[in-house]
UniProtKB/TrEMBL annotation:
Subcellular localization: Chromosome; Nucleus
Name under which the protein is recorded: Mre11 DNA-binding domain-containing protein
Keyword line: Chromosome, DNA damage, DNA repair, Endonuclease, Exonuclease, Hydrolase, Manganese, Meiosis, Nuclease, Nucleus
Coiled coil: none
A Gene Ontology biological process term: telomere maintenance
Record GO cellular component, one term: site of double-strand break
InterPro entries assigned to the protein according to its UniProt record, in alphabetical order: Calcineurin-like_PHP, Metallo-depent_PP-like, Mre11_capping_dom, Mre11_DNA-bd, Mre11_N
Length: 438
């Protein structure tokens, strides 16, 4: 992309869910190992910064173990003597608030090598805990200057989104962040023109300042937005699909058409490659989660993080398949497709439950074999956190049992103890093979 002096390199990731399954003797390290791989990749590739799209933590009030592990990882990879090659040219007090009124690398007592900018998600959103202030777990990390927390709104019925203006060489980025807001309330605010984006404008003296901009309002009195900024929106909301309710998700039409890139958090399925929006000229990347927190088909897709490089108005992406990921195999099975069971049913015979259990057990055994063939080789062998018993995979078999009795899933799962990471959750019975999306 030309001279490195003008290239801003950014690691993008989301939904780390630190602390997920921390009481599980097998899966307790999964979230930390995956997050550390992203951090280590960031340092190895000397990125300028990391953007984190929400749900760094799985719980609103992380346990002391989870918080300790998070701080250990951030100290190891965020602190250092590497130079910071970009600058923030906007008023930082309006972005980071009064408590942390400047980016962490400018703090006189901190030596930051990897600046991380994060919004909150629906799992780690601010809440009141015995006081008047609503605080998030990210506020604690922000107070330690290990993370730059932004995108929190004081009023969800009157939302003002101001960008962090970043400059490196001739490249300038306007980084917008919106921490999770309940989708119904955010929809209402958007419909009532209560969501305002501020755009950088340039006066005759070439000073950069912010002015409000809303595609739905008369903006003839505004100065022309500065065309030299690459606009990025980091958000954490349900993404509208054909099945999603209109008021329980965010539609692309709501996003300003002048945006260049949307980094979509909250959705766990990895769709990290750029997708062109049907509503505007912007591109969308959906990194997906770095750890499986449900046994849905979307979580079984290969998980990735990515580094994007921006120069002026051009952007390219390099993806990194995650290797600190527990193998997850998801499949569906229709009992009626088994010839022996179908023939017995058609003859009107009473079908013994043990016959059904044997059929399902054979299917699960084949999935276990498939999982063993798909175990990832760790990219780094010197991580602080490693997967425990990585040979134990996650398996989910969705069984359509129409026309057949339902068997005891726990009894079948018991036969896979010490063979799987989730023996008690292997089978999901349904009367339809249609898989519901998150």
């Amino acid at each position: 992309m030309g001279s490195e002096e003008d290239i801003i390199s950014i690691m993008i990731t989301t939904d780390s869910h630190l602390g997920y399954c921390e009481r599980d003797p097998v899966r307790m390290n999964d979230s930390f190992a995956a997050f550390e791989e992203v951090l280590k990749l960031s340092r190895e590739n000397r990125v300028d910064m990391m953007l984190l799209g929400g749900d760094l933590f799985h719980d609103n009030k992380p346990s002391r173990r989870t918080m300790r592990n998070a701080v250990q990882l951030l100290e190891k990879y965020v602190l250092g003597d590497d130079p910071i090659n970009f600058e923030i040219i906007s008023d930082q007090k309006k972005i980071f608030g009064q408590d942390c009124n400047q980016v962490n690398y400018l703090h006189p007592h901190m030596s930051i090598a990897l600046p991380i900018f994060s919004i909150h998600g629906n799992h780690d959103d601010p809440s009141r805990d015995g006081g008047p202030e609503a605080l998030a777990a990210l506020d604690l990390l922000s107070a330690t200057r290990l993370i730059n927390y932004f995108g929190c709104q004081d009023k969800v019925d009157d939302i003002h989104i101001k960008p962090i203006l970043i400059k490196k060489g001739q490249t300038r980025i306007a980084l917008y962040g919106l921490g999770n807001v309940r989708d119904e309330r955010l929809n209402r605010s958007w419909d009532q023109n209560k969501v305002t984006f501020y755009r950088p404008a340039q006066d005759e003296a070439s000073d950069i300042h912010l002015e409000n901009h809303d595609d739905n309002l008369d903006t003839h009195h505004l100065k022309e937005p500065c065309a030299r900024f690459f606009n990025i929106l980091l958000l954490h909301q349900n993404r509208a699909t054909m099945r999603a309710g209109v008021k329980t998700s965010i539609e692309e039409r709501m996003i300003p058409k002048w945006m260049d890139l949307v980094i979509w958090g909250h959705e766990h399925e990895c769709r990290i490659d750029f997708e062109r929006s049907s509503q505007g000229r912007f591109a969308i990347t959906q990194p997906g989660s770095t750890v499986a927190t449900s046994l849905s088909p979307g979580e079984a897709i290969q998980k990735n993080c990515a580094i994007i490089q921006i120069k002026l108005d051009r952007i390219k992406m390099q993806t990194f398949p995650m290797t600190m990921i527990r193998t997850f195999i998801h499949d569906e099975f229709i009992l009626a497709n088994d010839e022996d069971l179908a023939e017995s049913r058609d003859r009107g015979e009473i079908i013994d439950e043990t016959n059904i259990v044997q059929v399902l057990q054979n299917k699960v055994e084949s999935m276990v074999t498939q999982a063993k063939d798909n175990i990832s080789i760790p990219r780094f062998s010197d991580q602080l956190f490693q997967l425990l018993q990585p040979e134990l995979a996650l398996i989910r078999l969705r069984v359509d049992h129409r026309g057949f009795p339902k068997v005891n899933a726990k009894n079948l799962g018991a036969s896979f103890v010490q063979k799987l990471a989730n023996p008690e959750q292997v089978l999901l019975f349904s009367r339809s093979s249609t898989t519901k999306k998150k």
